[in-house]
Amino acid sequence: MRDCLVKTLRSEGFFGMYRGAAVNLTLVTPEKAIKLAANDFFRQLLSQDSRKELTLMREMLAGCGAGACQVVVTSPMEMLKIQLQDAGRLAIHQQKVLGTDGPQAPFSQPPQERPYTTGTASAFKRRSATVIARDLLKTQGLVGLYKGLGVTLLRDVPFSIIYFPLFANINKLGQRHSEEKAPFFHSFVSGCVAGSVAAVAVTPLDVLKTRIQTLKKGLGEDTYNGIIDCARKIWAHEGPAAFMKGAGCRALVIAPLFGIAQGVYFIGIGEYILGYFH
After folding, report:
1. Residue 217's beta-bridge partner residues?
2. Is 275 helix (H, G, I), strand (E, B) or coil?
3. What is the DSSP letter of 177?
4. Which of 23, 24, 175, 245 is deepest in the core (most CB within 10 A)?
């Protein structure tokens, strides 16, 4: 993680750390809204005789439904974010292959899977999420934005199956009575703990998803034909430890993200704001 931080700062500067932030800011709100609301919907649907207590199996089933619903937003969001975040790494990789500081020399062989770039100059050009999305829609249609949908489901459904029951049971520890809500800080900590545990648990699936959704490959980098092919090549070329790459970073990012989202959701800020419109 430290090595990645240093190299990114050296090659792309401070703002290179924030590539894909606009996509996150635009789509993370509806994604979390769908996820949390869908979980509540399925919990109510699965409750027996209007009881609030659910069995662990029913809590996991509600989380499964929430994870399946959120991929409508998550899959294209991740697709665009990965292309933006990977642009700097690819440019540096290509410059090293060329042995130049710019795109003066031709490639010894054509780069692999370059659906929205033409020529060597465009390979080094920084592209916005809007341009990438437009080019993907032109060349591949709506399917292009949803490339990796299967592996995104494979990651998000287990995440929600782990996260929501774990959060609910940790959050209960902060409730003095079953009818009252836990304090904001307790809900925040519960979201952080549950989020970090779930994030680390599904890291191997996130690694697969990221590799599959990376459209542009540098020279000599593997291309993948589906989930099984991707898993086999990572295991063969990088070893089993590669499946846990980025686990620490995911925990550091997702813990506060879910802590804040779950805390705000549980204290009812959304309902308070919507009350002004009635």
Report:
1. 112
2. helix
3. S
4. 23
